[in-house]
Structure formats: C-alpha cells, structure tokens
Hints:
The complex is a heterodimer.
Chain A: E1 5-13, E2 19-28, E3 33-38, H1 44-51, E4 59-64, E5 67-68, H2 77-81, E6 84-87, H3 99-109, H4 114-127, H5 143-155, E7 161-165, H6 173-188, E8 192-196, H7 200-203, E9 210-215, E10 218-220, H8 233-236
Parallel strand pairs in A: 3-8, 3-9, 6-7, 7-8
Antiparallel strand pairs in A: 1-2, 1-4, 4-5, 9-10
Helix pairs in contact in A: 3-4, 3-5
Chain B: H1 9-12, H2 24-57, E1 59-64, H3 69-84, E2 89-94, H4 97-108, H5 123-126, E3 131-137, H6 143-153, E4 160-164, H7 165-208, H8 210-218, H9 223-263, H10 266-269, H11 275-305
Antiparallel strand pairs in B: 1-3, 1-4, 2-3
Amino acid sequence: xxxxxxxxxxxxxxxxxxxxxxxxxxxxxxxxxxxxxxxxxxxxxxxxxxxxxxxxxxxxxxxxxxxxxxxxxxxxxxxxxxxxxxxxxxxxxxxxxxxxxxxxxxxxxxxxxxxxxxxxxxxxxxxxxxxxxxxxxxxxxxxxxxxxxxxxxxxxxxxxxxxxxxxxxxxxxxxxxxxxxxxxxxxxxxxxxxxxxxxxxxxxxxxxxxxxxxxxxxxxxxxxxxxxxxxxxxxxx
Amino acid sequence: xxxxxxxxxxxxxxxxxxxxxxxxxxxxxxxxxxxxxxxxxxxxxxxxxxxxxxxxxxxxxxxxxxxxxxxxxxxxxxxxxxxxxxxxxxxxxxxxxxxxxxxxxxxxxxxxxxxxxxxxxxxxxxxxxxxxxxxxxxxxxxxxxxxxxxxxxxxxxxxxxxxxxxxxxxxxxxxxxxxxxxxxxxxxxxxxxxxxxxxxxxxxxxxxxxxxxxxxxxxxxxxxxxxxxxxxxxxxxxxxxxxxxxxxxxxxxxxxxxxxxxxxxxxxxxxxxxxxxxxxxxxxxxxxxxxxxxxxxxxxxxxxxxxx
Lengths: 237, 308
C-alpha cells in the first residue's frame, strides 16, 4: 500500500523555544481513518498544521503524496493544498461571505465554473442541515452552524486527505454523529481522514479507525497501526 | 490588463470594495490633480521654448553704427540691397526710426518722433542710435555663415555688426527649459509619492484582510489570485481618483489659459497647449492607474512571499 503521508524524525520549534513536536515518525495510508488524540497543548494542532502545509518543520522529513513537502517550493504548495481539506478549530470562515460563498470558496479557488458549483454547494448545505441558511453570514450563525459550514467547506472539493481539528467541539451529540458519518462516507470513497479530538467517546463511533496519541510533543502508538499498514476498513469492522 | 476588470463578482466579494469610502481615491485625486498641473506646465514650457527657439534661431539683426544720419541711412539701404541677393537670407526689413524709438521707449520713455514727431527734440536727433536691419534667414545660421554675411556687407557698411537673435534670447530659452525640467521633475516626484501612497494603502489592506488571505492560501489560492483582488481594488480607486483629479486639473488649466491669452504678450501667449499635449494630459489618470496597479501588485506579491 502506498503511503499518502510519511513523517520521519520530524521536529517543530516555534522561534527559539523548546520543540513543540519531537521526533515524529509515522505513516498514513490512503483510505484510512485516523483519530489524533492527546491532552490540551500536546501538539495536535501543530501536527495538523504540518499536515495541511501551513507550517514547515524545523527538522526531519515529510513526504506528502509521495513528494518532499519540506523543501517543496512555495509555487507548488497551492496545488498540494487543494488536495487537502481542512476543518479549522476556529472555523476561519470569511466573515463577509455568505454560508454558500464560504462553502463554494475551495471550488472557486480551484477554478470550477459557477454553473458547476451551485448544485454541489446546495447539496452540501442541505447535508449539514443549513439549506435554509445559504445566504446567512457567519456572524448570524450559531457556533455549531459555523462549524458545519466549515466542515462543508473542507469536504466540498472531495479532498484526498481531510484534516479536522476538533470538528465536533461545538455541535450537539446528534450532529456530531452525523458529521462523523459524513467523514466515514468520504473515507469510504477513498479520502484519508485525520480527526484531532480530545473526545475519546468519538473513537468508538468509527470502527476500524486508527488512533494516534500525542503526549508532550511525542507520538505514542497504542494500536501499533502506525508502524504497519492498517487493515482495510471493511475487514477491520 | 482587461482581465483585471472582469474578475467574477464572487471573487471580488472576497475583498470588500467600498467605492470612494477610504482615503485612497481622494489621495490619488490630489496627486493626479497636481500631476496634471505639473505636466501641463512642463508641456507648455516645452512648447513655448520650442516655438520661441524656432522663431528666433533663424533671425538676426544688423546694426549699423554711424554718427552721420545721412551716411547711416545710405549704408543701411546699400547693405539691405546686398543682403536681399544672398542665398541664406529670406527676408530683409530696415527698421524705420519710429520703430527703433518704440523699442527703446520702455527704457528712455516716449520721444517726440515716436509720438508723431510733433514735439521738439526727437531722440534720434539727440542720441546717435544705430540703424537696424531685421533679417529672416532660410535656416538657423552658424557663426561662420554670419561672418560671411558680415563680410558681404563690410565694404558697404564698415561699422555693421550682425547679431543672431538666438544669442539675445538664449537666457530666456535657458530659463524656459529649466522651468520645463523642473515641471517634469515634479511629475516624477508626484509619481513617487503616489507609489508610496499605494504601498501604504496596499499594506494596510493586506493587514485588514490578513485572515481572509490566510484562508484563501490554505484552500489552495495562489499569490497571483490574491494579488489580482488587491490590484483591481487599488486600480479602480486610482482610476476614480485620477478622473476626478483630471477634471479639476483640466479646469484650472483652461482657466489659466484664458487668462494668459487675455494678456496678449509674446512669450506668455506662446504658453499654449497643443492637441497632443492635451492628449498626454488625458493619459495621466490612466498612467496613474497603471502605476498604482503595478505598485500594488509588487507590494502584495512581496508581502505574500513572506507567508508560507
């Protein structure tokens, strides 16, 4: 199985401080589902930033889609970023755009024609239960609604990897389950999912998902799955 | 450049565009207004300098210095006849005494002769003024050619001097040229100030929309896509401000033009703008917009390169 992400002895240091992440070595495989857990401040968000190319590591090697992401030129980054969907912990919705326009943003950035994006965006709005809030600005949406818009924006472009930072943090349990079902559906279509969460109850909701646990910037591997390719999810279940 | 203005509406909404809402269009309007005035001044001086230079570089004056008025008149007549037959000379005109008196009237006051000769004591009788012959040459003559003219009339008027008019007007031409270059220097300084204002505005806009830019970047937006949004916004601000500045500047120029032509004085009257000067002035807002656009693009691209 070809790896989609490969970390080798990766370290991350902000400024002259101590390393936030130390000696991370792991491999993620296409079509797998990973939970990234760890206490607050363990470095989950920093690790996700490395995954969605918002940060370069201070040391080590990162291979993404088979290419060296550490020395990759800035000009090539946008092309790689379009293959990654991100749900930010703070949503990062564009405040002056409607829910529709926020969700359509990745498609417009990728140059999708306007007539080709109306239907998928409307469907995505319906799926996250915001079909009637298409024209609402983020400021008029509740925290949970904003989070759903952020998730819809992350998945609308059918990314090869979906990286989600606490995606269920602001939604009720029912919606959390529905969102995980969406992630699972995407995963079934071949998208690699990485969900950072401190909610251990979520882990049991996705059978066959692998767990990565961060402790003080280091990675522990309780399931051992990071050393070996995981079983296909249909067999794991 | 056209593609700059046909960015889809949804892309334009990424960076809100409030028309004439910020200080930028007004700053540009003031800059373009001053640039239009400086350009008009530079072009008017350039045209006036050229016009005066063209008119005078092919003219010369022959002075015949002779105390005896009868002999002086005869020498002037003979020299004029000789000059008329020369290839280099286009027109010859012996200045009548009244005209000579008028020329010196600003320094010595009106004399009897100039006032109709009714008063006693014409200046020409009191001061031995030279006879003057105005020459229009077929082209601007060099020192050697003027010396040849002098040689030709020397046997007829031994005391004759030939002075090219360009020599007399040279300091005025030099002054006009200096004013012209000062005006064009002002245009360059104003362009630099406009570029500086655009840099400040672009940086402020980048700072205001930092979050949006970060999101677009992480969604796979390119520096070029982002810079186009800012370029368009600043180019439109510059165009609006530029048109406003042009209207005000052109109004002032027209007003000054009317006042100058009312003066009716030689050099001042030559400070007119030709149609191609007006064309250049009309292009000032467009050039200002291009300058603003290029500056904005360089500023935004430079700033984005510092971000991963």
